[in-house]
Amino acid sequence: MTSHTTQTEQVAPDSDTDTGTGTGTDTDTGMESSRGDEAADRRKAITRARVVLWDFDGPMCRLFAGHSARRVAQDLMGWLEGRGLHRLLTEAERRSLDPHVVVRAVDRARPGSDLVAELEERLTQEELRAVASAMPTAYADPLIRTWRATGPRLAITTNNSPRVVTSYLAGRGLTDCFAPHIYGRTQDLGLLKPHPRCLHLALRALGSAPEDALMIGDTPSDFAAADAAGVPFLGYARNADKERRLRGAGATLVVNSLETVLETVRHPA
């Protein structure tokens, strides 16, 4: 697969303009202290991790950067409608235009059915087509290689198909950093994150206690899975909305660029 490059993704800082009188200094000092505490906690979480569990779509790459996830969801819904099964989805689920929402909805209605198996395979084929135009997340590749070279073991814990992850890693020359520890979607869609199953599988295979690991994810379901598994969590938020969602879910350690993590791994002291 052709290598891709991308610019560093940054989130513009919130305005700290003082609109009151006489309280700006105290407010700014408190914010600076809070940011300093988070930076120290983040450094501790990164440097003490002996196992790092990566989510795939988001922290590692934007899988659907050139292959619309919206169109994939529409195609899946069209396939269901052609079989008279569109009523398996609620109106809200049809409006979501998220392929994972579509397959989860059908799994809830027809768990363990051939219908779920076929729909999951259709989603996997769309994800495989998306690999060719996936956009690597800025600094992800050097971070993965540096982390692996400095000792921690790596695994992928994702709601995407393991076949898709394997294809992407091969194209980026990253297979040896993770194989065989790739834990992703099966046809039992009830075990997708926020269920912690994929994290439990990774921890068991790597012989790691949860507290000795760190998960990097970009969604509330990633945080919920890590929390359920007892694994410390580092959120990656490529924009302000992602950060708001992560912090709203309870994540306290969030970065807007993996460059911050890479610098900590390179200079842990």
Describe the protein's architecture and organization:
Residues 1-23 have low confidence and may be disordered. The longest helix has 25 residues, at 24-48. This protein is globular. With 269 residues, it is α/β, with parallel strands linked by helices. The chain contains twelve helices and eight strands. The strands form two sheets. Strands 5-4-1-6-7-8 form a six-stranded parallel β-sheet, sandwiched between helices. A two-stranded antiparallel ribbon has the order 2-3. The two termini are 37 Å apart.
How would you summarize what this structure contains?
With 269 residues, this protein is of the alpha/beta class.
Gross morphology is: globular
Approximately what portion of the residues adopt beta-strand conformation? Answer: 5-15%
The helicity comes to 40-55%
Task: Report the order of strands and helices.
Answer: HEEHHHHEHEHHEHEHEHEH
The number of distinct helices, counting runs of at least 4 residues, comes to: 12
By helix and strand content, what is the structural category?
alpha/beta
Major beta sheet summary: 6 strands, parallel
Total number of β-strand segments? 8
Largest sheet strand order? 5-4-1-6-7-8
Question: Which value, in Å, is the CA radius of gyration?
Answer: 20 Å
Distance between the termini: 37 Å
- The chain-level mean pLDDT equals 89
As residue ranges, the low-confidence spans are 1-23
